[in-house]
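Q: What would this complex look like in 3D?
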Amino acid sequence: MNIMCITGIDVFPPVANSCDLGDERGSIASFVASAVLTLYPSIGSSLSPTAAGALRTSIILENVQEIRPHVPVAALCRQRALRALDRFQIFPQSYNQILVRGVLDYCQGVLGGMADGNAAQASLLLQIRRLTDQIEALWRQFAGQQSVNSFALLDLAGIEDKFQLLQDEAAKVGVARLDQIPTAALIER
Amino acid sequence: MRDLLKYPTVIYDANCIIYYCFQFPEHDINGRSITVTGPYTEKARRITSILVRESRAIATLRAARQEVETVIVAKALSALLEEGFIQRQLKLTGKPTPALKLRMAQKLKSEILKLTKESWYTEDRTYTPRQDRIGAVRASYDDFASNPQTRDRIPPYKGQPSEVDVALILYSGDSNLPLLTNDREIFNFAAELAAQGFCALIKAFPHVSFN
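A: Here is my prediction, written as structure tokens for the whole assembly.
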């Protein structure tokens, strides 16, 4: 299997590239990374401390975006959030559009100030990643011209609830909830 | 106001609901607590307070309230942001981020929730106009559009009222209650719609006076 060619720092470059595109191969990468670490635990010990940290973060994230340590996971998640934020801009005006864009904007702001390998923030990173996944799935479902208007009528209470939980998690690690962010910090630069 | 006070209940359209609700706490750019208020909120609140003081109720259709929550909140917020109306109150020097927009939209939704809990607010969850009556209203609007004497009263880029607006017009007729609306497409044809028995009374929000 090609996946056996893990060498130190540069792990699964083809998979990492596929994840950069944000497609379904990301979940395959997650599976592969988990399986490799389970079957070959010695790999973890053969990596440098930085690479091992990045790999651990990746496993925590479940869906591995990128496990090359020189490409920070938080930065990649932020890229995805920004891309999704941009995609929803063309949707017709609705509360749901404001909701998903607001959530993504908050998340990208949190990710912007996040350091990779910070164990205390791993859970927050995971929640952000899952919420971003869910919102991206909505985009894929409703981006077609026929169904864009029905997006406004969707019940997105689940996303609102998860956003509240995410903010609770953020507060635990000292990141301000949306309500607590000074207005001056919420102006586009 | 006098014509509205002749009735035990006044029906609000989606615009009147959002005008009433467009008032929420926020912090300006300097961190001072302020209350963001929409341009028509003061008038909508004054009308409502008079009605409530005189023991009148406010009613709307569930569909209208849902329209406010799903679409009108966003459109009103975006329009007031584009006009710079909210920026001036918050003393913003730039465009608000999507996160700030969400914070304000969530506060607006809370205000709508507060309204729905008021003892004087009622919401008809079951009313559905008859299909033949909907067809008759639509046929009238086709006539308004084709008749040279009435077509000038149709506002630019407008034509047929929305499904919710047609339901509100017919709800006024079926319940014999007045409809308060800021929709020109509706109040410009108040006399014709009443004459045809579609509504009890259509009152234009801008025409409400307190004398």
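A: To summarize the key features: Chain B touches chain A at residues 26-31, 69-71, 73-75, 77-78, 90, 92-103, 105, 109 (CB under 8 Å). The first strand of chain B starts at residue 9 and ends at 12.
Q: Very helpful, thank you.
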